Amino acid sequence: MIKKLLLALIAVATVFTGFAQKIQSPQEFLGYKPGEQFTTHYRIVEYYKYIASVSKNVKLQQFGTTNEGRPLLAMFIASDENIGRMEEIRHNNMKLAGIESGAGSTSMPVVTWLSFNVHGNEPASSEASMWTLYDLVDPANKTTKAWLKNMLVVIDPCLNPDGRDRYVNFYNSVHGIAPDPSPTAREHVEPWPGGRVNHYYFDLNRDWAWQQQKETQARVGLYNQWLPQVHVDYHEQGYNAPYYFAPAAEPYHKDITQWQRQFQVTIGKNNAKYFDQNGWMYFTRYEFDLLYPSYGDTYPLYNGSIGMTYEQGGISAGLAVVTRAGDTLTLVQRVAHHHSTSLSTLEVASANTQKLLEEYKKFFDNNRNNPPGEYKTYVIKNDNNGKVNALAKMLDRNGIQYGFGLSNKTATGFNYITQKTEQFDIGANDLVVNAYQPKAVLLHVLLEPKTFIPDSATYDITAWSLPYAYGLKAYGVKESFKPASAKWGVLDPAPLTNTHAYAYVSAWQSVNDVKFLAALLKKKIKVRYAEKAFEVGGKQFTAGSLIIARAGNDYPDFDQVVTQTAASLNQEITALSTGFVDKGSDFGSDAVRVIHQPKVLLVAGEGVNSEAMGEVWHLFEAQIGYPVSLVKYQDLGRTKLSDFDVAIFPDGRYDDLMSEKLQNWVRDGGKLIAMENAVSSLVDKKGILLKRKEDKKDDKDKDKEKDKPVKLYGDRERSAISSSIPGAIFKLKLDNTHPLGFGLPDYYYSLKLNDDIYDLFGDDEGWNVGTLKKDGYVSGFVGSESKKKINNGLLLGVQSMGRGSVIYLVDDPLFRSFWENGKLLFSNAVFMVGQ
Ligand SMILES: [Zn+2]
Questions:
Q1: How far apart are CA 426 and CA 380, in angstroms?
Q2: Which of 297, 376, 622, 623 has the most neighbouring CB atoms within 10 Å?
Q3: How do residues 366-381 score in pLDDT, each as one tens digit?
C-alpha cells in the first residue's frame, strides 16, 4: 500500500517538474519519426495544442476556419522576456512601417514568419513544421534559445488544411504495408482534383493579393497586422528536382530593393552551407521568379519583408519513390531538408536583427516619402459603384489607403483606356489613391499600367493592372493629390424615397447587381431586363438594367421583399411610379424580357481543369449565391439534361464534347457555355460553326523564315518563349447591345493565357460579341510568334442552334476570381443570353 502511494507521488512529481523540463518531441507525441508516416491535419493541430499547453514560450492563435471547418493556426514563439511583449513587438512593426503613429525602434526583436504547406499535396513541410517548433521550445536547446533572444517566430503549420487532408487521406488509403517506390504505382497518382488546391480548387499561392478565398482573407488579415521582416513559403516541386531556395530567378520586379535581393543571397548561402555539409543537392536562381504579386514570396517582398519560396522535390512521391536519377527519395529525407532550411533561415535572421529592422524601416520610409513609379496619384472614376466598391474592399484588405473625391478639381493624367495623357475632372465619388503611403510599393505593383519585365521567361502572368482587371476608368497623375474625404470603406447607396412603386429598377453593371438578381430569383420574384438603354425620371439606365415590376409579383409583401433584399446587399435601387419611359421602350413592351430562373449544370471531374471549374463553382456559391449542380463529364450520358437550362463546360480536355444527346438538348432550348479549351474541343463538331483562325503567312514571312539561322539546342527555352503568352491583357471591341455584353462598355479587357483566336462568324452564323483588332494589345509579355497571330479574330461569340445557343468564351473571364471585369460578362452568359 505504501509502495503504491509512493509510486503515485512520484508520478505527480514527474508531471509537475515535467512542465518546466520535458516537452515531447513530435516522435514521442505521434509515435513515429518525422517523415515515417503522413500526419493528418487534426493530429498536427493536436501537437500544436499540446505544445501550447506545456510550453510557456508560445501563444497559439486560431485565426480562421477553412471551408471544410478545419482550424487555421498561427503559433507565436518567443523567449521568456519577449513572450509577454508580443503586442509591443507588433505595434513596433506598425510604427516602423508608418502604419501607426509614433517612432518605432530598430532595437526590438525581428519577426520571422514561416508558412508551411500552402499546396496540400506538397505535404513534407507541415511535418517539418512540428520538428522546427519542437526545436524552438525544447528547454534543452541552447542554440534556438539564443536566437529567440532577439527574434519572434511565427509558424503557420498548414495554410491549406483541406487540401492537405485530401492528399494525406488519399495516400494513406491506397498504400500497402510498405510504400511502393515504383513511380507508376497508384499511390503516386492522385485522383481528380488532387490536393494542391483548397475546397473550391483555388491555388492559395496565387491569391495573396486578391484574397478571394476565405483562408487567404483570414491569413493575410493577420499577416498585415504583423508585417514580419522575414517570410518563407514552403513548397514541394516535382520529385525529380532536388531542393530550391533563395536567391530567386529573374525576373525580379524592379521595386524589389537591393537589400531584399542581397539578403536573399545571405540566407541562400547559409542554407547551402548545411546542404553542402550533408551532401544534399540543391539549386538557386532558377525557375522561381519574383514578379506576379500574389505569391507567398512576392507579396511579403512588396510589403517590406524578405519573402522567399523554398521547394523540396516531392510532389506525388508518397513515403518513397524512385527518381529519374535512380535514387529512392523518402518523406524522411524531404522533411529533414525543410527542417534544415527552417533552422538555417532562423539562424540568419537572428544574426541580422538590427540590420533587418533598419532596412525594413528604410523600405517604409521610402514608401511614404519617395514612392516608386511615375504616378503619385491614381484616380478611379466612379461610373460604376458596384465595381468601385469591390475595388475599395480589395484595397482595404491590403491596407492600401485611399479616399474619395477632390472638389472641382481638373487634372491631367494618363488615361488607362485611351493610353493617352488627357485632362479630366475629378468628381466627389471618384476613388483617389495617393502614392505617398506605407503600402506604396504594393500599390504601384498592383496599379501601374504596364509591368516592366526585364526578362520574358516567367512562371506566371505578366499583366494584372487593377483598372483593367476591374474594367474601370482610371488615370495616373504625376502630381500628388490628397483625396477630399479620407474615408475608407465602401460608398453607401442613395436612400429610397418611394417604397410603393410601379417598378423598382437596378443597374446591371457589377457582381453585386448579379447577387441582387440571384437573391430575387431565389425568392421567386419575377425580374425583367431591358434590352435597350432607357431614361425615366431624369435617370439613365443601360441595356440589361433589372426591372422588378409589381405586375407578375402579386404578393402583399412585394415592396418589402424587394427593398429589404436590396438593403441587405447594400444595393442601390430606384423606385418608379410609372412604366412610361422618357426615352427607350416602356416596361410593357417586347424589348423588356422576363429572366427565367435558370437551372445550372457545371461539368466537373477527370479531364476538367479543376481550377477553372472551381472559379465557376466559387462564383455561384460564394459570390453571387445561386445554386449550381456539379455533374461529372463522364456521367452526362446518364444525366437528365432536360432538368437543366444551362450547361457550363469549363476549361478542360473533352474527347467527344458535342454528343448527339447534348446537341439535341441545345436544339431543344438548352444553353451551352464553353470556356477556354472547351471551345477548341467544339471546333469541327456537328452543328458548330466556329472555325479556328488559320495562321496565314504572307510571302514576306516565308522569305524571312528561309533566312532564319539554324535553331540551337541551347536556345530551346528562348524559342518556346516566342510562341508563349504567360498572361497578357488585350482590349476587345465589345458589342454591348448583345446580352452577352450588357452592362459593360463597348470594350472589354481580356486576360489572354494562350494564343487561341477564331474566325469571325458570317452574318447568318452567329454573333461576334467580343472581337480583337490589330491594335488590341495592352500589357504583358506576348511572344513574337503569338503577337503576329493574335489579331482580327473572335474571342467572345454566340451561336444559335435550334431553339438554344452555344456561347464561346475563349479566354477565362473568371481568372483566379480577381478578374472582376469578367464576372458580369460570365453572368450575362448565364442569366441574360437567350432569354
Ligand atoms: Zn507549391
A1: 9
A2: 297
A3: 999 999 999 999 999 9
